[in-house]
Amino acid sequence: MSKAFQCYRFLSKVSKLLPLSQKIFKSQPLTNQSSHRVIDHINEENLKLNPEKKAQFKLDLGNKLIQQGQVEEALKYYDLAIKLRPNWPEAYYYQGNAWVAKGNYQEGINAYKQANRLGLNSQELILNWEQSAAKLAGQYIDQGNQLFSEGKLEKALIELDKAIATKPDSPWPYFYQGNIYFSLRQYQKGMASYDQALSLKANVPGLNLNYANVLLRQGKLEKSIDYFHQELRNDPNCAEAHHMLGNTLDRLNRFQEALPYWEKAIALKPGNMTIYNDIALHLMFRGERKSMIRLLEQGYEEQQKNALKGNVGQQDIRFLSSTWSSVIGHTGLLDYYIKMTQLGLNSHRHTILLARPDQIVNPCFLDYWKPYIDIVTEPESIEKLTPLSDSLQDVLAGIRFSDRRTLPYFEAWAVVQREWEKQQRSPLLRLSDSHLERGWDCLASLGVPRDAWFVCLHVREPGFHQDKKGLYKTFRNANIDTYTLAMETVRERGGYVIRLGDPSMTPLAPMSGVIDYAHSDLKSDWMDIFLCGACRFYIGTTSGLSHVPPTFGVPCAMTNWTPMGIRSPYGADLLIPKLYWLESEQRYLSLAESIDPQIGYIQYAPFLAEKRIKPVDNSPEDINALVIEMLERMEETGNYTEADHGLQREFDKISAKYTAYSSRFSRDFLKKYSDILF
After folding, report:
1. Of the four, 7, 78, 233, 299, which is 20 to 30 A from 213 by CA?
2. Arithmetic mean of pLDDT, 440-450
3. In the chain, % of residues over pLDDT 90
4. DSSP state, 461?
5. How far is the C-alpha of 414 from the C-alpha of 660, rounded, in Å?
6. Is residue 246 part of a domain?
């Protein structure tokens, strides 16, 4: 054997003992000329050796090519070595290293598995195998998160399942899997994923926080507090954990305990309007109007300081977050926000809504606003714009006017709509021809003739929001059975009734001319909007869906309205409120008492219960009287006496102490309860 060949054999043995990184980066590649001499010599020697030794030559040559960075060529020689010695674990091991060097982790793992099955169990093999599995799982996680951000949640789950199969001892795929189930409202599955991640005893930022949020959605408030505290033990400066812990304590009616956590969240992120928005809403739920306004003023002031520091304070642009697209009632509030801009009541002229795909509750309704604002849904664009939006964001809870007034959203809404109607401007939205055509086709399939008219009926129930119990148990729900008389009245006048809602609602008993669309197979996002925009009028309760019809100029007959201090701002609307029974004095509160923000802004039953106040639903007769009045208005057959106008003026005077609303209370309702007006 020649000295050159003996030297090469020695180098190859040394090479096998080195970690892969050293083999690749520390060896000096041969020149092309010397490389050809070695290869020629090896080929000449191979003719004289048996298959086992030939396999060793192929392996050695593959290792040498790896040292030179020639991965593709090395793989060919490893394949040749394996063909010569199919049960040689070292050959599969080095083949695995080559695949990993190429970035093909799955092939690398397959080769490592084969090496292990054939008896190789070295530390280097196990380490490379684990690292490759982690890399491959990371790729699946990245792909899953990208699909998640694009709203392709089911496909994202498939990628995360692959990550779990590849690296079952990693907490990360379980964490992201839990996040997706949370978005899908599949909370039990989300908890199972988070439980698996927690069982792996790894510190995953946000894991305890997200677990706590899942518990919140299931009404397990007390248990969620433990996980918020655990998140804060891991990261004492997690503003979101402080923020959400404060919210949770408030929901448990531990308001004083909540305050320091809210204050800490604000201190950690001054000017972050998302935090101010959430806390302001909590104050509103308690009837704390003045505190709500002060907090919003503080938030907008801090935000302005941040904008000036970032040299964006003079931008003629404002951003809205996906909060405005995630709930249909919030999307309806774009109506007043856009009108505010058109009336010159704010200080900018350009609005951008950053709407994540998984945070768009009704794509059709959102599309109708595109002529007025820019709507960005691409995840990459949202990510790029988010830092700028943090300093230029308007929030749902309240808005700042160009004269620097800051008002809660419902008061601002009333101010804007009153000015809009004063200038006799038209509604912003109009159903498209294609939606009109398709919508009437669908109604025809349900038995509604094209020349017929119909009203929409939506009576809020607890199923959709799962708000049957807890501190945030609402009193905005009502009983659909109390609307039967009103439905019969519409039918007697020749109209049809289309019941809106979701499948969780109580099914309607069969009634001629009444269609339970909430349980129909034809239900869709665009059909919801068509019905709201094409009906003669809308009969509803206090819910987000009631914000949709007025944007198309459709009047609403609002029943069981509550809270009293917040009214519909549209002049075409009629309403009757729930009365409040004061148990301690065995009397109804006057309408004036019910409007006061300390009572009139409260939106959750336990806060009223503390004051020993019980909301009383409207009677079927009161609901029917309201519907008859709306029918008369639509038919222009109604008659209001001077006494009727006088009662309305007196009530409006009381209301105007806080906010002047354009909607009217029902004529018959004011007559019937005139003795408790003041």
Report:
1. 299
2. 96
3. 76
4. -
5. 7
6. no
Q: How confident is the model at residue 31 (pLDDT cuts 50, 70, 90)?
A: very low
For 54, 467, 541, the CA distances from 8, given in Å and listed in that order, are: 15, 77, 87
Last residue of a domain, one of 96, 121, 146: 121
Residues 546 and 530 in one domain: yes
**Banded model confidence at residue 152, pLDDT cuts 50, 70, 90:** confident
Calculate ∠ Cα 451-452-457, nearest 5°.
150
pLDDT computed for residue 14 by the predictor: 33
Counting every residue written for the chain, the total comes to 678
pLDDT number for residue 536: 98
Give the tens place of pLDDT for each residue, 275-333. 999 999 999 888 899 999 999 999 999 999 999 988 886 678 999 999 999 999 999 99
pLDDT over 90 at 35, yes or no: no
* Residue 64 burial class via C-beta count within 10 angstroms: exposed 0-12, middle 13-18, buried 19 and up: buried
The verdict on residue 117 lying in a domain is: yes
In this prediction the pTM is 0.81
Task: Report the range out of 31-40, 262-271, 465-474 with the highest average pLDDT.
Answer: 262-271
318 within a domain of the structure (yes/no) = yes
Examine the fold and report which residue of 389, 407, 429 is the final residue of a domain before the chain moves on.
429
Alpha carbons 542 and 459: distance in angstroms, whole number: 8
Q: In what order do the strands lie in the sheet with 587-588?
A: 587-588, 579-582, 613-616
Residue type, 219: G
Q: What residues contact residue 658 under an 8 Å CB cut-off, 6+ apart?
A: 289, 411, 565, 595, 596, 597, 600
Task: Provide the pLDDT for residue 252.
Answer: 87
In whole angstroms, give the CA distance from residue 104 to residue 113: 15
Tokens read off for 513: 């001319």
Half-sphere exposure of 286 (CA within 13 A, CB side): 16
Of 494, 395, 512, 505, nearest in space to 460 by CA: 505
Query: Do 608 and 537 share a domain, yes or no?
Result: yes
Query: What radius of gyration do the chain's Cα atoms show?
Result: 34
Provide the strand spans (E) within 182-321: 317-320
Task: Determine the structural domain holding residue 389 and report its residue range.
Answer: 281-429
pLDDT band, residue 24 (cuts 50/70/90): very low
CATH number at residue 605: 3.40.50.2000
Is pLDDT larger for residue 570 or for residue 32? 570
The β-bridge partners of 587 are: 582
CB 513 within 8 A of CB 443: no
Q: H/E element holding 597?
A: helix 597-600
Residue 492 pLDDT > 80: yes
Three-class DSSP labels, 315-365: CCEEEECCHHHHCHHHHHCHHHHHHHHHCCCCCCCEEEEECCHHHCCCHHH
**What's the rounded Cα separation, in Å, for the pair 340 and 347?**
10
Whether 347 has a pLDDT exceeding 70, the answer reads yes
**What is the Cα–Cα distance from 592 to 576, expressed in whole angstroms?**
14
Percent of the chain's residues with pLDDT above 70: 91
Q: What is the pLDDT of residue 656?
A: 84
Distance CA 294, CA 104 (A): 58
Q: Give Cβ neighbours of residue 496 (< 8 Å, ≥ 6 apart).
A: 448, 452, 453, 454, 455, 490, 513, 514, 515
Instruction: Note the pLDDT of residue 7.
Output: 37
Cis omega (within 30 of 0) on the bond before 597?
no
Q: Are 380 and 299 in contact (CB under 8 A)?
A: no
Q: How many domains does the chain have?
A: 3
Same domain, 514 and 421: no
**Residue 333 near residue 396 (C-beta atoms within 8 A):** yes
Question: Which residues fall within 8 angstroms of residue 303, CB to CB, at 6 or more apart?
Answer: 271, 272, 273, 391, 392, 393
